[in-house]
Predict the 3D structure of the following.
Amino acid sequence: MKFAQNRSLRKIICTVTNDLTYDQRMIRICTSLTQEGYQVSLVGFSLKKSLPIKNQPFTQKRLFCFFKKGPLFYIEYNIRLFFYLWIKQADCLCAIDLDTILPVLLVSKLKKTKRVYDAHELFCEMKEIVTRHSRYKFWKRIEQLAVPQFPKGYTVCTPIAEEFKRIYGVNYEVIRNVPFLKSNEQHQATIPDAQKVLRDRLQESRHFIYQGAVNQGRSFETLIPAMKNTSAQMIIVGDGNYFEQTKALIAKHKLEQKVILTGKLQPEVLHQLSPLAFAGLTLFENNGLSNYYSLANRFFDYIHAGIPQICVNYPAYQAINAQYDIAIMIEDTNTNSIVEGMQELLSNPERYQQLKSNCLIAQQSLNWQVEQKKLSQFYASVFG
């Protein structure tokens, strides 16, 4: 009891550059830390289309910015974030990814507070960074300056942790971004509400689902044409920097009736929607270490939805699939490879049911109830 009371005096501020409503990963992390007795705040920014903030066990703050994207946004947001952190009392500041790391570093040094780096990905190796020399050079300098000054940190998979160790000599924990384990009753109780999203839009009995950021490097250039060679439909749930190009690809290939774009959906609706799909899609182009070493949220979301998936055969996914056998692994993201993966699921009901059953087994180990224990131990070590 005394230890819990001491924890309640410790304040943690986590910083992101996104809309708080849809960030399931940070909602899980901040909720778990609050349940551990910490006072937690999550700071993001507001968009014109941002939904009202929903009540959570932790405090939420959106910073207003005049600029909404591009270099001017990052400059303005980092300045506003610095002053926000400067006037707030905190015992630990946690920077989520590289785009909020400088304000956290500066304020933690000036105020002598603890600091943590939460690396969801290899930021500099994302396609939109690594393929643009000046942009890569800018962010790489920030990474080289800041990361070595964050000896305490965690990331989502072993390959990324090993890369940080190799480059910067830091030993980061691995805390995977997995959903809470829910009972079958919890899933079934909400499914009828999700059907409203798809009503009158699906003509086929089976459909694939892609959920997550609609960004560069996610293989839409090859995924969309693949739908011409399958009898199933596909829904794409999300938004991002490649959304308009994806719409154009759908129109170019005359697939408006087979590929449905829903835009972003609130987490509770998405959780209901995923189990209705035939199978999921986890695809990344091999154009940077961020993709090659990734371990995407959707990979685990499909497992917890109880549906097989088509997944690119990169190290972190390969290791998990070797243990649980929950996906059809493809060697590349070419259109033919994607079509072959789809056809294997569509034409082989025995294999499909085997993968589906294995998802139920994998859920028992790959869940947030397990990972949040690691999170608790990590922050205990930070304050220990």
Summary: The mean pLDDT is 91.
